[in-house]
Task: structure prediction
Amino acid sequence: MITNPVRSIRRAAATAVTLGTLAVFGALGAAPVLAAETGFTAQVDYVNYAPVTSAACGFAVFVHHVGTVTTKLFTNRDGTIVREIDGSAGMHAIWFSPDTGKSYTFPEPGMLRTIYSGNAIGDPAIAELIGLQDGTPGAREAGLVVFPAVLVGFGPFGIPDIDTTGDPLLIAGTWNGDFRVAARCAALAP
Result:
């Protein structure tokens, strides 16, 4: 099983929700944005408990995301969102365990590009992770990974919320899948 990297990228963009860039902007409505190009930028600084990694490691593990995230929506003439680009240049992830006192930090400059086939719940989409996605020692991931996805709703400012629906369609570069969880445990072990 592959840990959902699209969720990880979006969590890195804001607080602990799938496609977390949405949480940064507050609960301001859920209607799709009707503009040719709409952009949002926000500073984030939050800590999440990492339950999957904690369970695998046998000790508590957290991740602290800090930096700037951006979301840019592109629409066609009728206002349908056709593409989204989420960036995190300047973001850093700090993985740490208060139980062991160990931590490691890496930049999160990766990008998530989403291509939408429509704006109705259940419409298919394609999610493309581009660039450095994980800097875990011994399990760094960078390149291009393409996932099938589905539109599951809209968040603040009408930003679409997606979830992946299967294994990668394409992998170019290094992609460690679930191995990165074991590598996190090794890096944070007592």
